[in-house]
Amino acid sequence: MSALIYNDQGQLLVVNNVKGNSSYWSPPGGEVEQGETLEQAVIREVKEETGYDIGITGLSSVREIVFTDAGSHVLIFTFFADITGGDMLIQDPDDDITEVRWVDLQTARQLMPALFEDLHIDAAYPSPAFYAFEGTRLRGI
Asked: Which of 61, 67, 68, 85 could cross-link to 53 by cystine, CB 3.0-4.6 Å?
């Protein structure tokens, strides 16, 4: 699950994730922990990865992917959210996040081209919520 968070200048909040020897950019987010609701999980993940407190303002998307190599069937919920407090500060206990930044939409498209399209990120914020089956694939970045 993840959160699309825009500032007053229309910039999107993104984080740089490290997996093994590679890295990739994405909106902040992560996995739901035991006993959490989706809302609690995305609020916690954004706080850990960015230092910001957020309030959920709506649903952006539900995406479905089957990862054949891992034998997993994944639903990814993405929410719209607003900053309600906090300061930019990485507090990720897993040390998976190396950088947090606000970027314009052109830069967001360059940093994460496939995800930019998958999430239907554009200037029409907030866009209507959608569902997409993204297919069967090997787990990858």
From this structure: 85
